[in-house]
Design goal:
- Belongs to the UPF0260 family.
- This is UPF0260 protein IB286_05770.
- InterPro entries: Puta_zinc/iron-chelating_dom, UCP006173.
- With about 150 residues, this protein is an alpha+beta fold.
- The protein has 6 helices and 5 strands, in the order H-H-E-E-E-E-H-H-H-H-E.
- Strands 1-2-5 form a 3-stranded mixed sheet, with no helix packed on it. Strands 3-4 form a two-stranded antiparallel ribbon.
Length: about 150
């Protein structure tokens, strides 16, 4: 089944086909960054440490089909959960559609160009390190970034 033009404006997340759902991902890689949550305030802070499965050159999971078995805290996004996942970045297409905000102009479904995410400064490409490069005793607080929105 192919996606309908501008399907995200016509359908809720739960009404989307698998093809439509998957095409909403802009490939920014932000959701694959390690995050820290302040226990007192609930505020989420992003680090520039990426999941070990994230290919830092393509910003795509290197083993998407098996990620849930390989990474114990990997989250499979589901339409019914998106509204409750406060750690999704503001720019996330799933979050934006769930909140009725539509897609950003740089989103590949709007621009027709997968590189538009990088040009708009929304990709984590060349901004992160793999968790495999961070020592076990490293303090993840030292890796907090402010550029994730």
């Amino acid at each position: 089944m192919t996606a309908q033009p501008r399907f995200w404006e016509q359908k809720s997340l739960s009404e989307m086909s698998e093809t439509e759902w998957e095409s909403l991902c802009d490939g920014c890689g932000k959701c694959c960054l390690h995050k820290l949550e302040d226990e007192d305030t609930g505020k989420v802070y992003y680090t520039n440490i990426a999941c070990r499965l994230l290919d830092l050159k393509t910003c795509r999971c290197s083993d998407y089909a098996n990620r849930l078995e390989q990474v114990h805290d990997c989250v499979q996004l589901k339409s019914e959960d998106v509204a409750h996942l406060g750690w999704l970045p503001e720019s996330c297409a799933y979050r934006r559609v769930s909140e009725g905000r539509g897609l950003e102009s740089w989103h590949p479904l709007i621009s027709g160009d997968s590189v538009s995410v990088l040009r708009a400064g929304q990709s984590i490409k060349k901004r992160c390190v793999s968790e495999l490069e961070v020592g076990e005793n490293e303090d993840y607080q030292d890796y907090i970034v402010r550029w994730v929105k």
